[in-house]
Design goal:
311 residues; alpha/beta; Alpha-Beta Plaits; 11 helices; ATP binding; nucleotide-binding; cell membrane; ATP-binding; membrane
Length: 311
């Protein structure tokens, strides 16, 4: 039987005492895509991830992974995925290579195969020079790379990444992004939770936004940004005496309230025709402008608009 989706979630519901953590959430994750799960703290991201990885049972709803129902076929489902959380349960006093060998053996590899796989992963994640260094002496970036390497020992088809770049500096974060893209090129499916909106924008093929346990929106980053419909225009007026006139013209033409800081006016608009008409009118009034910029909505804007007032 040909299975089209890596993950299928239907009407997932989870309640702790009287608090509903996940409320009727449904979505699918396609094979070979990076699927991002976003939401404020306490929105239900971690609860969903724990249910998908069989660490927590839902009160109701269905989860299938590569066609395996977690209720009846959890063992086969678990064999298809790897999980990278905030930190893997490694032995801090052992070296990176020793940890990789131990986890390889725990995953059923022979002694010889475990050594081979450990060396492959050390090379793949640029940890060869630190292979014999104890984990307690690793930097945060090196530790995160080792965590990911451990989750890939069995070359899983599906990888759950729970905020994989938390605490990393921008340079190391970019290196992790490259590693994730490489995994996708090799055929892996990635389920990503992250607190960095830029990360989801750069990596995710599709994004699901949840809040208070409910699925608010799902789509590609571009689709979500387009739904906001408003972009932002900023322009600097040459003469301070023209700021009031320019502001009134833009407010009238763009049907929005401008913000003025010094001699810079910022205002939102819905379509480019409005901008063209506004600039033409400013020119007609002989109002000189400089430093004109237009900014499209970002995923941060989408996130704030969808979850405003709910934190």
């Amino acid at each position: 039987m040909q299975v089209e989706n890596a993950i299928e979630v239907k009407h997932l519901f989870k309640k702790f005492d009287q608090q509903i953590a996940v409320n009727d959430v449904s979505f699918t994750v396609k094979k070979g895509e990076v699927f991002g799960l976003l939401g404020p703290n306490g929105a239900g991201k971690t609860t969903i991830l724990r249910m998908l990885t069989t660490l927590l049972k839902p009160n109701s709803g269905d989860i299938t992974i590569f066609g395996h129902d977690l209720k009846t076929d959890g063992k086969k489902a678990r064999a298809t995925f790897g999980v990278t959380g905030q930190y893997a349960s490694v032995d801090e006093d052992l070296s990176a290579k020793e940890n990789l060998i131990i986890f390889s053996r725990l995953n059923g590899l022979s002694k010889k195969a475990a050594h081979i796989r450990a060396n492959e992963l050390l090379k793949e994640f640029s940890l060869e020079k630190s292979a014999d260094k104890s984990i307690k002496n690793f930097s945060v970036g090196m530790r995160r790379r080792l965590d990911l390497a451990i989750s890939l020992i069995t070359r899983p088809a599906l990888i759950f990444l729970d905020e994989p770049t938390t605490g990393l500096d921008p340079r190391t974060r970019t290196q992790m992004w490259d590693t994730i893209r490489s995994l996708v090129k090799q055929g892996s499916t990635i389920f990503l939770t992250t607190q960095y909106l830029e990360e989801a924008d750069n990596l995710a093929d599709r994004v699901a936004v949840i809040d208070h346990g409910k699925l608010i929106k799902i789509g590609t980053p571009d689709q979500l940004k387009q739904q906001l419909s408003e972009s932002t225009m900023s322009l600097k007026v040459e003469n301070n005496s023209d700021i009031t006139s320019a502001s009134k013209t833009l407010q009238l033409r763009l049907n929005n309230q401008p913000k003025i800081i010094d001699n810079t006016i910022t205002i939102k608009f819905k379509n480019t025709d409005q901008v063209i008409d506004s600039l033409a009118e400013l020119k007609k009034q002989q109002i000189g402008i400089t430093d004109f910029t237009v900014q499209q909505p970002t995923l941060d804007d989408v996130f704030m608009a969808l979850t405003v007032g709910t934190n």
